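I had to read the description of the data format several times before I understood it. In essence, backbone conformation is discretised, so a fold becomes a row of integers matching the chain in length. I therefore recommend that a typical entry be quoted early in the introduction. For illustration, here is how one protein appears when written out as sequence plus structure tokens.

***
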Amino acid sequence: MPERRAPRRLCLVRRLALVLFAACTGPEPPVVVMTGPAPGARFESGTVALSGHLAGGSAETVRCRLDGGRAWALGVGPFGEFGALVNAGAGRHQLRCEAGGRTKSVGFEVDAFVRVRGGDLTVDGQPFRFVGVNAYYLHEEATREVLGVAAAKGKIDEVLARAVDLGATVVRTWAFNDDPESGTVIQEAPLAYSEAGLVGLDRVIAAAGAHGLRLVLPLGNYWPDYGGVPQYLRWHGLPPGRPDRFFTDPGVRSHFRAHIEHLSSRKNTVTGIRYRDDPTILAWELLNEPRGTGLDAEGAALASWVAEMADTVRRADPNHLVGTGEEGFDSVGGLDSAYWRRLGARELVSPGAGSDFLANTALVDFASCHVYPEAWGVPPRDVAEAGTRWIEEHARIAATLGKPLVVGEFGLRNRELAGGAFTVAERRSIYDEWLGRSGSDRAVAGVLSWMLMHDGRVDAYDAYAWTWVSGHPAELPSTRYAELYRQYAALLSGGLM
């Protein structure tokens, strides 16, 4: 008998110890269970539903904190439930909730990429409009810096900081150099790449991101500068004077597709982010100023090329927008042909243009046009009106397709060095008209001036160059249009127009 009672007494002692322990330690602390957002979830808008409940215990409040910063004390319901709407900006986030000394964390992401929604460019679900600048040479300067050229040190940061001071949020710059004779070449031979050239492009993208800027990156050039279409033709044994063959030759098309795939998959040596995953890139453009010269008057051949290459970009890089990079020429009657012929700009709308602007735009994410009426032979007295008309006509076509228009380049020649027709004050007045018209048309998402220089790259580099040092009086010749751009940048980005 004594042997049978001993275990019973031991069991009673254990139960008593547990009761005493519970009385001393109090009730069990609650466990935080997060039901939203789901771990790793990705949202198109920054309004995120936070939800959860407590298990195994109770508490009056749950304290939640976003990214170690903002915090909320959330009341707990009768069934242990809690919730709130959290506003988070674009990017990756960590949400941490705590009750009774126990915490639960969950990571999520708000889409940081520029999208097209309802005919607008958007970021984080909100319309994104901009005044920006072109600075095509950034890759060249960055690669020279990679190669140890002392004069190039710090130049890309100088230009990007200047763009930010102007209120710009977007910079358009080359993502190509296909000239094997260039010291800053990217593609040395078909699909053979210079690592120094690629690292230069890495640095441009990384620096733009660090300055809070986004980039529009053309993938090649119609013109011979930096190799361009003529170099692709040479590589494939074709006459460099036949640019139409670039768009129709199967070997060249295959080469360009492979180049797109290679570049978009590049892992940035500075940031560690693949190009296709980097929201610093706003969009790829298929080519800088593709033209249908030598192709069919209906624009079908050029549209076929646009369709093929746009599809290649989307498959290789589903995160980024794609545009054509075209000037806006049209040979099928989409524009007011009589008006442009009357002004002497026949090439814009002639059958030889070989381009259907509406068909091209329907195949990409946004419409593109460039504005250079002075260079098209428009008489000085008609230049201001012609530029406005060009923007209006292309915005109208884009709107019919539900696509935003990006004016990728606009400019007037400097009289001081390039023999332009207008003084600084006259150019400023014309730009005021063009920017004002762009800002007042909701179909126009952004405009990009040609072009902003750093102090070491003098005006002689480009007929349309201008620069600005923050704080310099706006009337100085070197500043030219600075205050005007700052004004419109603030108006468009603030949604005030």
